[in-house]
Amino acid sequence: MNDPNAEFIELRSLILKSQSEELSEAEAMELNRLINLPGGAEEAAKLVDQLCALSDATIGNSLSMHDECSMPLTNVPAKAARPERNYSTFPETRNERSHSGYNRRNDENTQSKNWTRAYWLVGLAASHLVIGSFAWSLAKPDRNQPAIAAVTLESKPPQIVSMTACVWGQGSIATPTLGQSINQGEILNLVEGVAELKVGDGTSHEALVRIEGPASIFIREDGQLGLASGTLTAKSLGFGSEQVSVITPIGLVLVDGQSSIGLVSQNDVHEVHLFSGRCLVLPSQAFGTSDIRLEEGDAVRLSTAKGIDSGVVLFEASMASFASARSNAFDPLHLDDRYVDAILDSEPDIYWRFEGLEGDFPQQVKNQGRLPGHNASVVGNPGWRQYQGNRVAELGLTDSASAFTSDALWPPEPLDDYTIEAWVKPQLYHHGEMICLVDPIERREGRHDQALLLEAFAREWFYALKVLGPNRMRFSHRSPPSGLVLDGENLVSEEQYQVRVWQHVIAQKSAKELSLWIDGNLAAQQEADEPLPANMQILIGQLYPTKNYRPYVGQIDEIAFYSRALPKQEIRKHIRASGRALDFE
């Protein structure tokens, strides 16, 4: 029986050899055999992490790690044609462009040989290093290539200084933590949440960078920040011109001191927004345009997509495109007695206003509806925010639980007609449970079945939930209760929900029809025969009563439960009473 350690050593030796010389036919065949051994692909991927200098990146769609590793690697020749190179992540500085033709020809000759040596690892690297975003070249860096970055590391490497509801994806450094340094060549794949990094601490190039999931960033060998895909904002804290630079798929973005920008890179559309100060965009030659100087309030979109927006488009910068650029106090919710009276006139069974807490431990939010009791007990440590005369609950901003649950069960009998009403303000795109009705009987390890879910989901979804669409609200009605993700009837809003903006949400059943309303507009509708099961536990802010799982991150207020279906006119009456205009009036 062969020694697997010895075979893995041979595997690594052949990979390393491919970086300095071409493999023979026999060596290529042996490499194929070793990569197909149990654990062979994973061992190769470990070496990919070490070899990958991030010297060439192209946006693309890759298979999952499971699919990639299960693909046959038989009949691989010793040589292969070099794939077309994308120069979008190799922008030349202004002083280097006159020599770019000569340098590129030399680079292509050198890189072509290296691609030939290691072409078979590209797919593996794509699935191992970055979730569905990149195919990284294993080409060795050409030391004759002009330097890309204008900034070098003069102090400690970038560090993570804050995280909000972060879910890290495959290829990131293992479970990033606060204060952790991000070393040169490392990658961060943020699936959900917002992470803040400090770059160039203690230098004139110091900046605060916030990345919004899903996003992929990397730190190049020269210490430069690279945005591979997704969204980020950056605030330059130094002084002087072109103090902070970010490598993007469209080229190099140079930011003046005391300036702030937002970057978006999604598929083949890329944007630079300048919120304050000045910045310079140096597009790669693939876009065929000259340098672009942005002034405060300007934005530019560069796209390779076919259509009216292809090429270069200048427009007004918008902070609304960046969740992390807005504070939690953005879009205040001012509700007065007029709104409260409108809700009470509709006679809800349960009405939680979150204006104050009563009792000792656990403290409770008093029910102002018509059913006695049914107060909301505090779970964990929710936060609070005051908007003049109105107070709202703020959930999910820490790693500890912050939720509300009812001790009394609802509804007292199965309902063919019901309505659940709330104001919600998600802080970011994420998978979080706003309102749940769960079976109070625990099934296994703290898990409970659900009869109803009103939730937000994110851009990145896995397994069966991918069919439901990203960044939408979902209303799930399950009778009988179930813990399976696609059981029951699932309504998904046609439009994406808004981040850090208050939205009025209604989930209801009227006879055999389910409907989801957002801001007075019908967002989704579907038939459903079975009634809402009786005697469910109400849960606000997480999926299970005793487990901080799938927390909702954001603000929530004015939750009401009705044992009837509110007509459209009554729903819109409530919105008008809030002082907010309906967009169709």
Question: What is the number of beta strands?
Answer: 30
Strand residue content: 25-35%
Query: What composes the largest sheet?
Result: 12 strands, mixed
Query: What's the rounded overall pLDDT mean?
Result: 79
Distance between the termini: 78 Å
Our count of helices gives 8
Helix content: 10-25%
Shape: globular
* Radius of gyration, taken over Cα atoms and rounded to an integer in Å: 27 Å
Task: Please give the structural blueprint.
Layout: H1 4-18, H2 25-35, H3 40-51, E1 57-59, H4 65-70, H5 100-118, H6 122-129, E2 134-136, E3 159-168, E4 187-199, E5 207-219, E6 225-236, E7 244-248, E8 251-255, E9 260-266, E10 269-276, E11 279-283, E12 292-294, E13 298-303, E14 311-316, H7 337-345, E15 350-352, E16 364-365, E17 376-380, E18 383-387, E19 390-395, E20 402-406, E21 417-426, E22 432-438, E23 450-456, E24 473-482, E25 489-492, E26 503-510, E27 513-518, E28 521-527, E29 537-540, E30 554-562, H8 568-577
Helix pairs in contact: 1-2, 1-3, 3-6, 7-8
